[in-house]
Amino acid sequence: MTDTQTQLPQKKSPRWMKILLVISLSLNLLIIGAIGSRAYFGPAGFKVAGKHGRLASPNAMRHAGTHLMWKLPREKRLEIHQLVRNHKAAMKPQLLALANARANFARTLKTDYKPEELSAALAKVGAAEDVIHSKSTELIKIFIDKLTPQERKKYAAILLSPKRGRWFNRQ
Questions:
Q1: Which of 89, 101, 157, 161 has the most CB atoms in a 10 Å sphere around its CB?
Q2: Nearest Cα to 170, choosing from 83, 85, 107, 77?
């Protein structure tokens, strides 16, 4: 007695399915690579070579203050948060002026190119940004004045050796 097995013809996957599988795999690898590089290298931005290159970031002092805030006692943190809220409320007119200057600059870009109008609009944006910068510097001064000498030393240490990446060290 002979056993004859009947072999069924093998079905091939459609070509579109293989292409879709390759595209899906490449997108997954791209996403994993982007997340991995962000975790390893930290956020991109104002990086300058040198020992204190991270201090070139426009928000370096604010980030150092945020790191320090996590190390302060709750009562002190709430007191400083209230100061920041009050200062931000006082800055609203200047922030609105900056927003209006930027909007006017954008409207100028939409019109026919006239270098003198563009320069004037950009100068107004720069002046409004300078006002905001001076107000922010006042806030930093107020923040520093509220700290004890030990807390100022902690702030200086954080500023000189900022944490890598964007996650806070809550020790």
A1: 101
A2: 77
